[in-house]
Every structure is written in C-alpha cells, then in structure tokens.
Amino acid sequence: MKRFALVLCALAALASPVMALDTPAPTTQTLPAAVLSKPYPATMGDMIASTMTQLVPSLASYALFIVGGVATILGFQGRNRAVTHAWVECKDTKTKVKRDQVQKLASSVDDVRADSGGKWKPDLVVFVAGSGFDPDALNFAREHGFVTYERDGQEFRLVA
C-alpha cells in the first residue's frame, strides 16, 4: 500500500507545474468553483486535481487508466516476490519425542512436497518439542534438514 501511495504522489508531482521560490502560493482565486463551493478548506487533493485539470486536461481524463495501470503493474510485482513456506510441528508431551514421531512428520512433508497439485510446498520444517528429543530422533531430524527447538524453562532454544 505504501508503494501505491508513493506512485500516486509521484504522478501528482509530475503533473504539477514547477514553481519558483518567489511564486506566491495558490489562493482561493486560482481554485475552481467546485472547490470553492465546498464548506471546508481546500485540501491537497483538491489542489492537485485542480492543477492537473488546468495543466493537462487530456491527462486528467485518463487518470483512472493511469492509476489502474500502475496498480496492475504493482500487483504483478507483488505476486512474483519470493515466498518461503514453513511447516511447524509442535509436540508438548510428558516424554521426549521419539524417532517414529519425527519419521511420521518426514513422511507427511515428503507427501506434500511430492503432490504436484498442491498450492504450497514447505521450504522449511520446524519441529518444536516441549520435553526435548531422543538422540535418535534428533539425528533423524538433522539428516532431513529439520530445524529443532526444545523447551528450556519458560523459553524455547534451538537444538544444534
């Protein structure tokens, strides 16, 4: 949304005339009657609209197409940005996580990654265990590139 606002400001700046430092600020006499008839003071938007219609009348009639084109271009750029999908598995059990639980997760992740019709595929797998991991489970998780965390008091720490 910030990019969209910046583009609109840039378009308004390109369409407005360049004023010298000694040029007086616009007064109510230079604003159109539609703006003067409003019960509140003229806004920056009113002044930009007035300037655009006075400066380039043909550009003002195509303003909707220009804004639509800019929005379309920004939409395509946003859709093509890099996205990382993460699969996070949490286990809060009384005992340490066993190898078979990590194997079950690895099997599920492999199934999702192999699904050609899936809308997303996990790039990162995070396994969080409240009671920690068995050494065998931890080794299996490392072999499959899983990021592992375990509870350490009131916090969770990364298991190396």
Throw out a few tags for this protein.
alpha/beta; 4 strands; 4-stranded mixed beta sheet; 2 domains; 7 helices; elongated; 160 residues; disordered N terminus
Structural commentary:
This protein is α/β, with parallel strands linked by helices and 160 residues long. The protein folds into 2 domains: 2-79, no CATH class; 86-158, no CATH class. It is 48% helix and 14% strand. It has a 4-stranded mixed sheet with strand order 1-2-3-4, with helices on one face. Helix 1 runs antiparallel to helix 5 and helix 6 (99-114) packs parallel to helix 7 (135-143). It starts with a helix and ends with a strand. Residues 1-24 have low confidence and may be disordered.
Describe the sheet with the most strands. Answer: 4 strands, mixed
Class per helix and strand makeup: alpha/beta
Number of strands: 4
Number of continuous helical runs:
7
**Helix content range of the residues, please?**
40-55%
Shape: elongated
**Which band does the percent of strand residues land in?**
5-15%
Strand order of the largest sheet: 1-2-3-4
The total number of structural domains is: 2
Whole-Å distance between the termini?
39 Å
Radius of gyration: 30 Å
What is the typical, i.e. mean, pLDDT? 73
Brief overview, please?
The protein has two domains: 2-79, no CATH class; 86-158, no CATH class. The chain is 48% helix and 14% strand.
